[in-house]
Design a protein that fits this description.
This protein has two domains: 115 residues, NAD(P)-binding Rossmann-like Domain (Rossmann fold, 3-Layer(aba) Sandwich); 183 residues, Rossmann fold (3-Layer(aba) Sandwich). Helices cover 33% and strands 14% of the residues. It contains twelve helices and eleven strands. The chain has a six-stranded parallel sheet, sandwiched between helices.
Length: 319
């Protein structure tokens, strides 16, 4: 009998039903798992499920029965893949589930920043509109998306979906992705520096790898248009957060919409939380992926992956 342990089931929101796998099994679910608890909870498991709980070499060594790690997400940077290969542990991930929810959240951040919605809302509540004694009130620029350039880092399924929405707004779309076999239909592939120089909006939709860590650094930010904004709904480690803090405060870029941070959740006294108090920064709590429909698709595919593996026909393997 398979013993399945879900280490962080609390990452799946309310209203989402996880169907039981169609084979004999014992299911153990934990809302959260602290780092020191991982090895103990996986010790007797044959299948481990994780969204963001890290599973490294030490945890694998303490889990001799483990044959599959089913990642309940697309990104698998929390898994030590080399250690999995060495021990013969398969790793699967989720694909294609967020092609609607992430682009929609991305454009919520883009439109909110390009139209300065947060600051205008705050000023209305503070009485600034009333004090202006005009039928309209404006003291911050509002930028149209139509005719502007959308620079997308990552030309996978989500990046291309974002590009299609951008084209719908009348934006010019360009991509950077060193591993894309060909340019998407919605725009050309360009060098990273070219994308930086041309884009009015830079948005990240690539995985976090050693190569992409801090792909947005101080030099990149300094080279962006001063009127441009940066969006990250991918992984926090893609952006050098101290460099972003400095760039925003120096006015090197016009604003940032951030859904993911280096440490999640960030401490109340952290630099990123202090930055989020500025009117040209919108920080959301890693929810771009989390519409009810997308989460249901995710858990359905998660069980599909587990059932396929047990049946001897594994799908969506990353190693």
């Amino acid at each position: 009998m398979e013993r399945i342990v879900f280490l962080d089931a609390g990452t799946i929101g309310p209203g989402v039903m996880i169907r039981p796998p169609a084979f004999d099994h014992d299911w153990q679910s934990h809302q959260q798992t602290a780092p020191g608890e991982t090895a103990g909870r996986l010790r007797a498991a044959t299948i481990g499920i994780t969204n963001k709980v890290r599973i490294g070499a030490d945890e694998l060594a303490a889990s001799p029965r483990l044959s599959l790690i089913a990642v309940a997400a697309t990104g698998y940077d929390v898994i030590d893949l080399d250690a999995c290969r060495a021990r013969g542990v398969a790793v699967s991930n989720i694909r294609g589930y967020a092609v609607n929810t992430v682009p929609e959240h991305t454009f919520a951040l883009i439109t909110g920043l390009r139209r300065n919605l947060v600051e205008y809302r705050d000023q209305v509540l503070d009485g600034a509109w009333l004090r202006a004694n005009q039928f309209c009130f404006f003291n911050r620029p509002i930028w149209d998306l139509s005719g502007s350039t959308l620079g997308i880092i990552g030309a996978g399924a989500i990046g291309q979906a974002v590009g299609r929405v951008g084209r719908g707004f009348g934006m010019q779309v360009i991509y950077h992705d060193k591993y894309a076999p060909q340019a998407p239909e919605t725009g050309p592939l360009v060098d990273l520096s070219d994308l930086r120089d041309r884009a009015d909006v830079v948005t990240l939709h690539c995985p976090l790898t050693p190569e992409t860590r801090n792909i947005i650094d101080a030099d990149f930010l300094a080279g962006m248009k001063r009127t441009a904004i940066l969006i990250n709904t991918a992984r926090g480690g893609l952006i050098d957060e101290p460099a972003l803090d400095a760039a925003i405060r120096k006015g090197e870029i016009a604003g940032a919409g951030i859904d993911v941070t280096e440490t999640e959740p960030p401490g109340l006294d952290s630099a990123i939380m202090d930055l989020a108090k500025l009117p040209n920064v919108i920080l959301t709590p890693h929810v771009a992926w989390a519409s009810v429909g997308a989460m249901q698709t995710l858990v359905d595919q998660l069980i599909d992956n587990i059932e396929a593996f047990v049946a001897g026909t594994p799908t969506n393997l990353v190693t």
